[in-house]
Amino acid sequence: MQYKYLKIVEAKLVKRGKSWYLHITFKKAKREGLTVDEKKEEFKPTGVIADNINQDFIMVGNDKQTIEIPTRLDDAYHYMQEAQKLQRKYPYKWRYSKHILNRIAHLFRKGRNILVDFAKKAGKWIVEVTLLLKANVIVLEKLTKMIYRVGDLRKTTG
């Protein structure tokens, strides 16, 4: 890597656990005298894909074909419910019993890991569907204030 084209934008000291790390962000500076191959081509869309994110599935497609990707929200919700059942079963004891506390933490962690894993895979799947349908533009629905709509999700599964 040639460092003469990199410019330091930000440097910050970050503490992770008991260790300290220096996090440096670089920005690539423009090079003079670019060749014809290195010049940026104008973007020309070849197709458009829209996606719709719901509780039960993610729908991806265009006007000719749509593909539904089922979500794993129900699986994660199941583990969260199991952890909450244990908290209700042992209302005072769970905070002080190491075994119950570890089991509750495990169930919550399992639910969170399912959601994080699905979120990472869903992005990859959407890109694969876009390539499959020979498009290069992905249109997302408006996701602002989505965190406020979490309370509207259904409370029971099935």
Q: How would you describe this structure to a colleague?
A:
There is one protein chain. The chain has 158 residues and is α+β, with helices and mostly antiparallel strands. It has a domain at 48-152. It is 33% helix and 25% strand. It has two helices and six strands; from the N terminus they run E-E-E-E-E-H-H-E. The chain has helices at residues 73-89, 98-132, and strands at residues 6-16, 19-28, 48-53, 57-61, 66-70, 137-139. The strands form two sheets. The chain has a four-stranded mixed β-sheet, with helices on one face. The chain has a two-stranded antiparallel ribbon with strand order 1-2. The longest helix has 35 residues, at 98-132. It is flat and about 65 Å long. The termini are far apart. The model has no long low-confidence stretch (mean pLDDT 79).
In short:
With 158 residues, this protein is of the alpha+beta class. It has helices spanning 73-89, 98-132; strands at residues 6-16, 19-28, 48-53, 57-61, 66-70, 137-139. The protein has a domain at 48-152.
- Summed up, the helix count is 2
Q: Please provide the ordered H/E string of secondary-structure elements.
A: EEEEEHHE
Query: Mind telling me the C-alpha Rg?
Result: 23 Å
The structure class reads: alpha+beta
DSSP strand count:
6
The end-to-end span amounts to: 53 Å
Low-confidence stretches: none
Instruction: Please give the share of residues in helix.
Output: 25-40%
Taking strands numbered 1, 2, ... along the chain, how are they ordered across the largest sheet? 5-4-3-6
Q: Main beta sheet, described?
A: 4 strands, mixed
Average pLDDT level: 79
Proportion in β-strands: 25-35%
Rough shape? flat
